[in-house]
Every structure is written in structure tokens, then in C-alpha cells.
């Protein structure tokens, strides 16, 4: 039996801990916050309950596989609810599309809303996207990062299908002529914190995976996912300590990681360390070795992912007929990406951003009838007081929140007179709460053909250390961080 310490109780860390405990190791999780879940946060206020991170479950079989590995059935510990409408999209021309949650129903819905032929365009694109998924899922998403292995297992014809030299937008426009379909596809690049003009065509697999397995919700809020993983871990004998900040990874004379030191100066020894902290923090602050400095320099060369500006709105008498997920597209999507990534000068708050609303019809998250707990998110530049946006500038958060609400009203969703209270979370708040540099949601972005291979590997070049979570391979988002945990558990193996 090996002693394993997991640093961080995000979903990736908890998932790795659960798998490793089930494999017979003695696992302890140390979390600097008082709460579990990392970016899968929860805020409660006056009877309103808000998820502050992911608001959608995709690829639910990944979650089911996690609990199965720990001897539990997902339906017994965490029932899920499938959404009939995956999302409602409002385009700049005023068109409103209710996208079905069943893949087979999407072409007819597109034809009915966008005009005859739109469904065939999307179906042609998703056929290519499925081919990309089939070629990349096992060799990339479910395996340790290895360029040589990927090249050995990929035929020239497969490379042509994946088209690593093309951007997501470039690939999409060979199939999609309707600008609304192009905008719909661009949206999926933001699921990895990226710019569709620079993100690789391989991200076409993202919309296919979402639509193939459907969109799901956890009654009571997605924060219950972290709680359920934690509870199963404890049942199997694992330990979780909150409010325990790790300030250093301890190495021996051979530069092998052999333990951790916390903020109180207490050292805990371990045979293996699994870091569910941001990779930039791990190599830039927690480790002080030559190899760590080299890895930190490599991470700095990558493009950080976008962040998010969030409003948590407690509403009275919210609008009727509101979709669970609602996207109000920007009039100028390229201007949004320019502002977020600073492509044409410094990053800046986007004046009229795309607005995402999660408005669950769930009595478990509201204080009573005729109330609503709404999560509102816009893409935002990371917190960067030195060369970009300083989200701690006095008055900026409040004024920008007002601006976002005004944009929503301009696009037909005016809720300003229904707000009982609001809580604003900026990229600076995200940085502080999760110790993520700049509040970048996904660590590094997928901007560029080689971006995926610049993402830190799960097996660190520093002996005794493994990385799990959104800033490590294979990337961010609930299913990917759980796949990251599965990869790490496979690398470490049974006790």
C-alpha cells in the first residue's frame, strides 16, 4: 500500500483520489479552501443556491465509469436529468434557436429555424466531427500525452481527417455557409478557453460529443458531483482535509518529490504526490528545482485560456418559458475574441459580449415558488494588472455588471427589475479563490496547432509527482478532468 497525497480537492483531484483509494492505496487529499470542488464552486445566499463553475454535464458515461471503478452505481449516488433542449441561442439578427438535446433531432430543428439546408450543413460537419472523435478519443483523450505514440498509431489518411494545420473556424466554414451556424460552432472553442480562429480543427469533436451523449443536469446543482465523489472516497477509507494550504512540495537529494509542507510548517511524507493545482503554480511556486523552472518557462510560452465574469442573480418572478441554458450572441464575435485575448492590443473588458445564462427550473436551488437562481457568464480577459485588465480596479466590477445586464435587455431579456440580489465574481476573484493565475479557467488555451502538446503531461518529469486537472493533459471541463484522473490512476497503478 502506497501513501499518496493529492494536493487540491477539485473534481480532478477528488476523482484521482477516489480511483487510487479504490486501487488499494492510502490516499489523503489536502485542500487550501474550506470548500470542495475547486472551480466547481457553490455559493448560497438567502435560500438561493448557485453553481459558480460548470453548469452542464456532458459525456455522463465518464462520470458513471468513475463511480463504477469505486464500486458504486451512478444512479444510486447521483441521479442525472437529461435536458430536452440543450440550449436556446439568440443570434444577432434576432433568430431564436432551441437546439434539441437529441443528436437525431438537430437537423430538422435547424431547418425549421434557420431555413432548409441548414440541417444538412450541420449534419455534414458533425459526420466529419465524429470521424475526428473516433481518431483522437482513445489515442489522445484517454491516454497519456505522447507525440511519438500518436504518430505511430495515426495513418496519413487519419491526419488528413484531423487536419491539424487547420483552425476550428477554417474547418467549419468548409461545411457551414450560414453565418449563424458558423457562430454556433465558434462558441464551442470557448469550451476550452480558446479562440476559434486559432484553436485546432480537432476541437470539432467537442460539439459532436456534447450532442451525441446529450446535455445533463444534476438536480440540486452540479456542486453535488464533488460532494458525491468526496463521500464515496471517505466510505472507502480516504481522508480529506480542507483549509490546509500546501506551500511547498518537498524533494530529496535526488530531486524526487517525497512529501508536502503546509502553511503551518507541517511536513507530510508520501510515496507519490498528485497535484490538482494549476500547473503554473506547481512548477512556478510549489517546486524549486531546475526541472521545475524549465517546465514553468515552457508553460509561460503558452497562451493562457480566457477567464469569465460572473453574475449570480437571485430573481423574483423570473421570465416564463426560459430555457435551462440560454446564449445571447454578440453582434461582433471577433471583437469579443480580440478583447479577451488582446489580439489587437491590450486585453480589455468586452463592451457587448456574448452572454450565457444558466437558469435551472429546480426547486432545490431556490427559496420558494416564483424565484430563480440564475448564473450569468461572459467571456473575459484574465486578471492581469501589469499588462492587461486589472479587475480589482475600484468600480470596474459593478459598472461592468450593469453593462452586462443592459446588453441582456437590449437582446430581449431584461431582468433588471426582478433582481432581489446579485453577487459579482471577477477573474480576480477566481484567481484568489482557486489559486489559478489570472483566473484562467482552463490553464492554457488550445490556441495553435501545437497547443495540446504544450499542456503539461500527467506524469511529471520530476520523479514522484503526477499532475491532474484542467491545466494538465487532456484539458479542462468536467469530463476531461475526470479522464485526467483516470490516466493518472493508470500510470500509478494498483497498490
What does this 3D model show about the protein?
This protein has 495 residues and is α/β, with parallel strands linked by helices. Helix content is 36%, strand content 19%. The chain contains 18 helices and 19 strands. The strands form 5 sheets. It has a 7-stranded mixed β-sheet. Strand 1, helix 1 and strand 2 form a beta-alpha-beta unit. Helix 2 (60-69) packs parallel to helix 18 (478-492). The longest helix has 24 residues, at 118-141. The radius of gyration is 22 Å and the shape is globular. The model has no long low-confidence stretch (mean pLDDT 94).
Parts with pLDDT < 50 across at least 5 consecutive residues: none
Strand content: 15-25%
Compute the gyration radius: what is it?
22 Å
Distance between the termini: 5 Å
**Count of alpha/pi helices:** 18
Q: Which descriptor suits the 3D outline?
A: globular
Q: Main sheet?
A: 7 strands, mixed
By secondary-structure content and strand pairing, the structural class works out as alpha/beta
Helix content: 25-40%
User: Taking strands numbered 1, 2, ... along the chain, how are they ordered across the largest sheet?
Assistant: 7-6-15-16-17-14-18
Compute the average pLDDT. 94
Number of strands: 19
Topology:
Layout (H helix, E strand, L loop, with lengths): L2 E5 L3 H12 L3 E5 L11 E4 L2 E4 L8 H10 L4 H4 L3 E2 L2 E6 L5 E5 L5 H9 L3 H24 L5 H6 L3 H7 L5 H5 L6 H11 L15 H9 L2 E2 L5 H13 L3 E3 L4 E6 L5 E6 L4 E3 L2 E4 L3 H8 L3 H11 L6 E10 L8 E4 L4 H9 L13 E4 L12 E10 L15 H15 L8 E7 L1 H8 L16 H4 L10 E3 L10 H15 L3
Parallel strand pairs: 1-2, 1-13, 2-9, 6-15, 13-19
Antiparallel strand pairs: 3-4, 5-8, 6-7, 10-11, 11-12, 14-17, 14-18, 15-16, 16-17
Amino acid at each position: 500500500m502506497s501513501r499518496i497525497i493529492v494536493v487540491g480537492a477539485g473534481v480532478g483531484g477528488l476523482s484521482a483520489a477516489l480511483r487510487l483509494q479504490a486501487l488499494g492505496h492510502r490516499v489523503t487529499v489536502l485542500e487550501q479552501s474550506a470548500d470542495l470542488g475547486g472551480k466547481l464552486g457553490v455559493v448560497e445566499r438567502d435560500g438561493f443556491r448557485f453553481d459558480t463553475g460548470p453548469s452542464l454535464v456532458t459525456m455522463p458515461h465518464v462520470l458513471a465509469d468513475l463511480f463504477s471503478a469505486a464500486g458504486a452505481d451512478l444512479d444510486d449516488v447521483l441521479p442525472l436529468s437529461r435536458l430536452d433542449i440543450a440550449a436556446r441561442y439568440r443570434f444577432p439578427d434576432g433568430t431564436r434557436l432551441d437546439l434539441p438535446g437529441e443528436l437525431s433531432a438537430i437537423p430538422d430543428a435547424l431547418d425549421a429555424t434557420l431555413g432548409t439546408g441548414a440541417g444538412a450543413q450541420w449534419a455534414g460537419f458533425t459526420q466529419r466531427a465524429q470521424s475526428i472523435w473516433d481518431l483522437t478519443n482513445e489515442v489522445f483523450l484517454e491516454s497519456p500525452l505522447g507525440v511519438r505514440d500518436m504518430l505511430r498509431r495515426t495513418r496519413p489518411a487519419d491526419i488528413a481527417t484531423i487536419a491539424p494545420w487547420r483552425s476550428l473556424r477554417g474547418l467549419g466554414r468548409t461545411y457551414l455557409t450560414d453565418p449563424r451556424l458558423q457562430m454556433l460552432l465558434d462558441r464551442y472553442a470557448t469550451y476550452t478557453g480558446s479562440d476559434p480562429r486559432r484553436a485546432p480543427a480537432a476541437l470539432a469533436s467537442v460539439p459532436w460529443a456534447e450532442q451525441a451523449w446529450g446535455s445533463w443536469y444534476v438536480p440540486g446543482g452540479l456542486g453535488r458531483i464533488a460532494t458525491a465523489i468526496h463521500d464515496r472516497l471517505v466510505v472507502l477509507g480516504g481522508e480529506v482535509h480542507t483549509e490546509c494550504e500546501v506551500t511547498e512540495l518537498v524533494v530529496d537529494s535526488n530531486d524526487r518529490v517525497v512529501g508536502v509542507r503546509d502553511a503551518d510548517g507541517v511536513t507530510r511524507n508520501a510515496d507519490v504526490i498528485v497535484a490538482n493545482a494549476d500547473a503554473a503554480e506547481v512548477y512556478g511556486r510549489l517546486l524549486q528545482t531546475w526541472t521545475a523552472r524549465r517546465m514553468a518557462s515552457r508553460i509561460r510560452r503558452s497562451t493562457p485560456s480566457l477567464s469569465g465574469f460572473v453574475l449570480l442573480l437571485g430573481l423574483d418572478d423570473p421570465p416564463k418559458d426560459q430555457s435551462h441554458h440560454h446564449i445571447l450572441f454578440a453582434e461582433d464575435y471577433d471583437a469579443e475574441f480580440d478583447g479577451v485575448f488582446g489580439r489587437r492590443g491590450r486585453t480589455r473588458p468586452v463592451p457587448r459580449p456574448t452572454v450565457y445564462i444558466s437558469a435551472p427550473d429546480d426547486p432545490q436551488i431556490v427559496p420558494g415558488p416564483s424565484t430563480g437562481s440564475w448564473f450569468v457568464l461572459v467571456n473575459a480577459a484574465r486578471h492581469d494588472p501589469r499588462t492587461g485588465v486589472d479587475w480589482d480596479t475600484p468600480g470596474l466590477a459593478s459598472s461592468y455588471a450593469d453593462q452586462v445586464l443592459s446588453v441582456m435587455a437590449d437582446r430581449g431579456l431584461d431582468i433588471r427589475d426582478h433582481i432581489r440580489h446579485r453577487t459579482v465574481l471577477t477573474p480576480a476573484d477566481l484567481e484568489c479563490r482557486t489559486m489559478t493565475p489570472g483566473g484562467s479557467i482552463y490553464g492554457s488555451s488550445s490556441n495553435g496547432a501545437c497547443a495540446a502538446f504544450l499542456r503539461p503531461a500527467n506524469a511529471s518529469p520530476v520523479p514522484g509527482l503526477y499532475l491532474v486537472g484542467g491545466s494538465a493533459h487532456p484539458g479542462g471541463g468536467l469530463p476531461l478532468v475526470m479522464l485526467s484522473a483516470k490516466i493518472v490512476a493508470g500510470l500509478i497503478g494498483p497498490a
